[in-house]
Recover the amino acids of this structure.
């Protein structure tokens, strides 16, 4: 295939990625604005808020470290808290890993760095139906780049307009709703639903645990329950097939 | 707040938070392209994203300032129910966000 055709196809996938991620962008934008506002309102200087937004690209970690910064906590504790808040992305990257092993290492580094909640779910939904389609890296980058731009523009707006956006508007709730919209359709299978219930319960029970470990334990508990139920249902399905 | 830290410490903090992004999101993608997960791990990973999202979202709905708020004065609960129902009905993420924010705001202004 001539090179220009490849480029055209990659552009097409990139554009499709950017388009597919669009429905989730109101949530990402609201969350970005809120993160920007929260950083400035907690007393972080504007240039540091900008630096953190543009490099960290991790709303929940940025929000988690703010109270620690306000308490003048040690630098290592801040880094560890960011790391643990980001732990769900280890799980995401484990789920994505098999789809990207063919690509060059440097590309995989950036594919990983640009992973977001919406991007990961949308990508896994597409490979679940289409398998390892060609130029999936371009598709992934299309989603990620759109998400990155929307998130950072929104963060900068939040940082600049912090004084004019009252916290009682609850703008951050739009981000929660966008994530909720990802969870609900995934609950159609029974094992996933069981996993969601268990993960949520444990995360709620462990909410006061240090370093947000309740969330981590909740995710693991949810995965274990979902996998056990999945295995049980499969066995039962095989058994009914054999007896009928 | 920034004045509680030296410029060097602030730089370390920014780099540390960025490093946490790289470490958690890229490590498993970058290392050892030859090894694969055991089939059992692969099977478990299918349910990992939805569990991670649930553990992130549900505490956001039921806690208000770190206190469990399972009552009608927490506007996020009716808003999430309405948004979830709308999503099941219309399959629209934008609509889900719009309905949720509308119920949240109306509840906050008029019900509580």
């Amino acid at each position: 295939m001539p090179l220009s055709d490849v480029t055209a196809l990659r552009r097409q996938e990139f554009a499709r990625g950017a388009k597919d991620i669009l429905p989730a962008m109101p949530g990402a934008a609201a969350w970005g604005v809120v993160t920007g506002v929260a950083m400035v309102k907690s007393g972080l200087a504007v240039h540091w808020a900008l630096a953190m937004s543009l490099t960290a690209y991790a709303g929940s970690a940025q929000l988690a470290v703010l109270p620690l910064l306000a308490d003048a906590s040690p630098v290592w504790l801040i880094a560890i808290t960011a790391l643990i808040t980001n732990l769900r992305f280890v799980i995401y990257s484990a789920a994505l890993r098999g789809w990207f092993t063919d690509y060059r290492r440097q590309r995989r580094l950036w594919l990983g760095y640009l992973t977001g909640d919406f991007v990961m779910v949308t990508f896994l939904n597409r490979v679940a139906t289409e398998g390892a389609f060609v130029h999936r890296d371009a598709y992934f980058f299309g989603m990620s780049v759109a998400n990155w731009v929307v998130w950072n523009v929104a963060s900068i707006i939040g940082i600049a307009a912090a004084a004019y956006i009252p916290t009682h508007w609850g703008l951050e709730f739009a981000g929660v709703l966008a994530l909720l919209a990802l969870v609900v359709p995934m609950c159609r299978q029974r094992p996933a639903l069981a996993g969601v219930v268990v993960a949520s319960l444990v995360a709620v029970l462990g909410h006061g645990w240090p370093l947000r470990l309740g969330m981590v334990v909740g995710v693991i508990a949810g995965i274990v329950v979902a996998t056990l139920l999945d295995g049980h249902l499969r066995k039962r399905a095989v058994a009914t097939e054999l007896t009928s | 707040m920034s004045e509680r830290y030296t410029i060097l410490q602030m730089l370390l903090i920014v780099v540390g938070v960025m490093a946490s992004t790289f470490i958690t999101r890229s490590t498993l993608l970058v290392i050892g392209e030859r090894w694969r997960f055991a089939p059992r791990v692969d099977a478990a990973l299918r349910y990992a994203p939805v569990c991670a999202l649930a553990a992130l979202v549900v505490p956001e709905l039921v806690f208000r300032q770190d206190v469990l708020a399972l009552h009608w004065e927490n506007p996020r609960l009716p808003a999430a129910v309405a948004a979830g129902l709308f999503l099941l009905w219309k399959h629209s993420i934008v609509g889900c966000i719009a309905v949720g924010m509308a119920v949240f705001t109306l509840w906050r202004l008029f019900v509580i």
About this structure: Chain A is about 80% helix and 0% strand. The CA atoms of residues 61 and 82 of chain A lie 5 Å apart.
